[in-house]
């Protein structure tokens, strides 16, 4: 028996990196997982690997219409959603004087607006399932600033604030909402050329002297989805002690 037998979980940005690790962890614990992403081939391959308890749905998190469709499709396949993990996100690293308006808006649309649309779209389904959970993946950059990541920082601070407001509004329905603030996690996003040097420098300053594996974030995701029954409106830091130094 798994801790999440017959629970329905929707994970955005689930094709690779942290999202894929979360999908694997939930399926291992018996959940039925809808993996959504714009990375179709990776998502389809992951769903095939995980078997009947996982399905892939192509999804642009910046589209309200697509959010409505994704929730409907998930319910048709598995039933009402119990857990939403708002994991999809991007980063563009460059001095803000060189950042274009289009680049800024792209980061905000995916990282911030996508979270808002996701929470709004999934609430009716969470109310049906009873005692629903929303987990928003923010960042330590939602707690502190960093040079070269102004748009990313703005979006992740916003996710932290939206989490608290949503938690207050949804508490009467038994729906819990929390944010996770990872530090340096070994995913494809931190390997991209414009981010890798900054990530390497941060990892050198981590008190635990290493970056984290995505599976270490998944353990916290599962805790918040299950055993953390009295936690809502809170931020949970997973950074090897990095923010404790500043």
From TrEMBL:
Superkingdom field: Bacteria
SUPFAM superfamilies xref list: NAD(P)-binding Rossmann-fold domains
MF (Gene Ontology): glucose 1-dehydrogenase [NAD(P)+] activity
UniProt xrefs under InterPro entries: KR_dom, NAD(P)-bd_dom_sf, SDR_fam
Entry EC number(s): 1.1.1.47
Stated family: Belongs to the short-chain dehydrogenases/reductases (SDR) family.
NCBIfam families: PRK07231.1
Name of the protein this chain belongs to: Glucose 1-dehydrogenase
Organism (species): Lysinibacillus telephonicus
């Amino acid at each position: 028996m798994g801790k999440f037998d017959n629970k329905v979980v929707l994970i955005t940005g689930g094709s690779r990196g942290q999202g894929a690790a979360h999908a694997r962890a939930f399926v291992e614990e018996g959940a039925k997982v809808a993996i959504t992403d714009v990375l179709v081939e990776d998502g389809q391959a992951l769903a095939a690997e995980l078997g009947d308890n996982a399905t892939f749905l192509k999804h642009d998190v910046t589209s309200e219409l697509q959010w409505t469709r994704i929730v409907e499709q998930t319910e048709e396949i598995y039933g009402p959603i119990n857990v939403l993990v708002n994991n999809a996100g991007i980063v563009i690293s460059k001095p803000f004087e060189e950042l274009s308006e289009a680049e800024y808006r792209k980061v905000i649309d995916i990282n911030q607006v996508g979270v808002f649309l996701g929470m709004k779209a999934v609430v009716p389904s969470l109310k049906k399932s009873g005692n629903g959970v929303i987990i928003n993946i923010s960042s330590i950059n939602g707690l502190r600033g960093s040079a070269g990541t102004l748009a990313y920082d703005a979006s992740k601070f916003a996710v932290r604030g939206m989490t608290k407001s949503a938690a207050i509004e949804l508490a009467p329905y038994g729906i819990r909402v929390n944010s996770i603030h990872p530090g340096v996690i070994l995913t494809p996003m931190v390997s991209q050329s414009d981010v890798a040097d900054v990530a390497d420098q941060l990892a050198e300053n981590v008190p635990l002297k290493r970056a984290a594996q995505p599976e270490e974030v998944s353990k916290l995701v599962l805790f918040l989805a299950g055993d953390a029954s009295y936690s809502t409106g809170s931020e949970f830091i997973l950074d090897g002690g990095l923010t404790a130094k500043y």
